[in-house]
Structure formats: structure tokens, C-alpha cells
Amino acid sequence: MTFDVTWYAQSAFRIDVAGLRLYHDPFQIPDGEPTADVILISHEHFDHCSPPDIARIRDIHKTFVVANPTAANTRELEPPVHVIRPGGEVQYGRLSIRAVPAYNLNKFRSPGVPFHPREKEHVGFICRAEGVTWYFAGDTDAIPEMAQFGPVDYAFLPVSGTYVMTAEEAAEAVRMLQPRVVIPMHYGTVVGSVEDARRLAALVGDVAEVSILEPRGRPS
């Protein structure tokens, strides 16, 4: 089974699998990239829900766009959009998509106010196509629900801290998820650097392969 991954920037990926082209949280997408069959949007923040980037890879008559409620309500995001909440599931051909919670435990914009509150219904995604399962975490901490998400073949995990898991917290997530391959994300654009990804690799190299990708996105 082919599972080809392209990283653009931050948490923006293209995955080619089972004859489908899927984008997670498209951001800083260069001109000329191929049109999406499916676009999954985890939440409304600018580096995850970027209407100009979505439009760049979307065929309004064909592309299936799935977003959590706050992203779906973004004014510039053209309908139709399939709204999904944590626990929701949807099928697109051979691709199954399940939305799971994504929220902060200990990252706060002000005392008691997390950057990603649970009640906002931000999501991660567990996807499966022709025997391959991957977990795209979105912006989250190492939440207890992760113990129920695995095992998975691939785990896309944020590592930069500040708004999401640190590398050390991502290592806790790896122990819960039991992935075969970990792909670090959410660094190098707003906060964090490749050193965060390398730190995660050093922490979990005994239990999973860590694949640190080169970005293909637009310069910031």
C-alpha cells in the first residue's frame, strides 16, 4: 500500500493513499499543487484554516471538505462544508474518517483560559484507507483519550510547546498511541524548530520510527 506524505508547513500535509489525495490543515500551499479529493480542517486558527490555501487546492464541485464547527463557520470558507464534532464519523469512498477530541490541558493564553478549550470542539482525525490507519492530532496536549486511539500506523503529532504538546509530552502520546511511524509537526512557522522534532526522536526512537520531513510550503 502506497502512503506518500508531503509536508508544507506547520501542520499542513498532503497524503496520497488508496488512489485519494487528502490534505490536512492546508497552509502555505505553493501554486500548482494538485487538487484535493478530501480536505480535513481541525479548527479555525489561521495556520490551520486558511481559506486562500483551501481555495488553491479545492475543486468546489468535487472536493469533500470536512471541518469542525468553528472552522466551518469561518466567513471566507466557501460552502459546502461537512461539519464534524469529536466522536463524529464519515465515509468517503474507501476512506473512513473519525473526529476525536483535541484540546489543551496546560497551555493557557491567560489564567484558566486555554488556547484550545475543549468546549470549542476542536478535533483531531483518525483515518483509515485500505488497511492503513493514521492519527492527525491537530492542536492538542497529550490528552487521556489518546490511550483509546491506538495502535495506529502513523501518528502526526505537534511538538513545539506553547500552544500544543512539547516534545516530552508528545513522547507520552507516543506511548499511548503505539504508532509504527511518528511524523512531528507544528514547528518552524509560528513557534518551535526542528530541534523539537529531533528531541522527540531521541525520546521515542526505541519504540517508533520518527520521520522528520523537509517542508515544501511557501516561504513565510
Question: Could you explain the architecture of this structure?
Answer:
The protein is built from four helices and 15 strands. The chain is α/β, with parallel strands linked by helices and 220 residues long. Strands 7-8-11-12-13-14-15 form a seven-stranded mixed beta sheet, with helices on one face. It has a six-stranded mixed beta sheet with strand order 1-2-3-4-5-6. Helix 3 (167-177) crosses helix 4 (194-204). The N and C termini lie far apart (34 Å).
List key phrases describing it.
220 residues; alpha/beta; Metallo-beta-lactamase, Chain A; 7-stranded mixed sheet; 6-stranded mixed sheet; 4 helices; 15 strands; 15% helix
CATH class equals: Alpha Beta
Query: What would you call the structural class?
Result: alpha/beta
Distance between the termini: 34 Å
What do the pLDDT scores average to? Answer: 96
Largest sheet: 7 strands, mixed
Series of secondary-structure elements, N-terminal to C-terminal:
EEEEHEHEEEEEEEEHEHE
Catalogue the unreliable spans. none
CATH superfamily: Ribonuclease Z/Hydroxyacylglutathione hydrolase-like
User: What would you say the CATH architecture is?
Assistant: 4-Layer Sandwich
**Widest sheet: strand ordering:** 7-8-11-12-13-14-15
